[in-house]
Amino acid sequence: MDPRSVARFVEDAEHQAMAHRLYTLVFPMDEQNDRVLLGMKKRGFGRDKLNGFGGKVEANETITKGAERELTEESGLVTKSIKQCGLLLFYFEKDPVAMEVHVFLVDRYEGAAVETDEMRPQWFGIRDMPFERMWADDSHWWPYVLRGQKFVGQFWFKADQVTFTQHTLRAVDSLDFA
Ligand SMILES: COc1nc(N)nc2c1ncn2[C@H]1C[C@H](O)[C@@H](COP(=O)(O)OP(=O)(O)OP(=O)(O)O)O1
């Protein structure tokens, strides 16, 4: 089986029939102070929302390398230690392509966060997240991060890209993508 395939985590036929586009989403953690770095997205998809750092995985790179590259491009931080904590699948009404988002935590990095063309970074307490300024799915899976559990979630968003009508979410033992 293709090591990038998510079929072992998501078995429904509707999902299997869809094309996917691969994305990363990276959360730098300050474990000593119980803080996480978010960025206010300044342009493009998710503009004006706070989120982790990430974007499309390029054809010539692994998912993890894509996550490291996006973090540096969008925040200036250089990863020293990165671990995948989640897999999120987003389906948007009337869109035939599913968004497959690989979620990572970075607990060691070099450099200081800087504002870039795409993101304005800001630290938040991990138990005091600004969910009202984030994507609607985030408050559902963030508790898995707090518990140190890996997770797989599916969210079916309306065409408004704001609200979702149904979701699934579960803990998994491992997420072993390249
Ligand atoms: C639908 O719900 C979402 N929730 C969360 N938490 N994050 C999401 C959601 N949908 C998308 N995302 C994340 C996934 C990626 O990290 C970004 C989107 O990536 P983007 O479109 O900015 O990709 P880039 O390659 O950076 O784009 P450019 O072509 O503009 O460079 O949002």
UniProtKB/TrEMBL annotation:
Superkingdom field: Eukaryota
Cellular-component GO terms for this entry: cytoplasm; nucleus
Reactions this protein catalyses: 2-oxo-dATP + H2O = 2-oxo-dAMP + diphosphate + H(+); 8-oxo-dATP + H2O = 8-oxo-dAMP + diphosphate + H(+); 2-oxo-ATP + H2O = 2-oxo-AMP + diphosphate + H(+); 8-oxo-dGTP + H2O = 8-oxo-dGMP + diphosphate + H(+)
Keywords annotated in UniProt: Hydrolase, Magnesium, Metal-binding, Nucleus
InterPro entries, sorted: 8ODP (IPR003563), NUDIX_hydrolase-like_dom_sf (IPR015797), NUDIX_hydrolase_CS (IPR020084), NUDIX_hydrolase_dom (IPR000086)
Compartment(s): Nucleus
Stored Pfam families: NUDIX
GO molecular function: 8-oxo-7,8-dihydroguanosine triphosphate pyrophosphatase activity; dATP diphosphatase activity; metal ion binding
Cofactor: Mg(2+)
Assigned EC number: 3.6.1.56
Listed GO biological process terms: DNA protection
Keyword check for Zinc-finger: no
Domain Nudix hydrolase: 19-150
CDD domains for this protein: NUDIX_MTH1_Nudt1
Homology family: Belongs to the Nudix hydrolase family.
Function: Oxidized purine nucleoside triphosphate hydrolase which is a prominent sanitizer of the oxidized nucleotide pool. Catalyzes the hydrolysis of 2-oxo-dATP (2-hydroxy-dATP) into 2-oxo-dAMP. Also has a significant hydrolase activity toward 2-oxo-ATP, 8-oxo-dGTP and 8-oxo-dATP. Through the hydrolysis of oxidized purine nucleoside triphosphates, prevents their incorporation into DNA and the subsequent transversions A:T to C:G and G:C to T:A. Also catalyzes the hydrolysis of methylated purine nucleoside triphosphate preventing their integration into DNA.
Quaternary assembly: Monomer.
Protein name per its UniProtKB record: Oxidized purine nucleoside triphosphate hydrolase
Organism placement in taxonomy: Eukaryota, Fungi, Fungi incertae sedis, Zoopagomycota, Kickxellomycotina
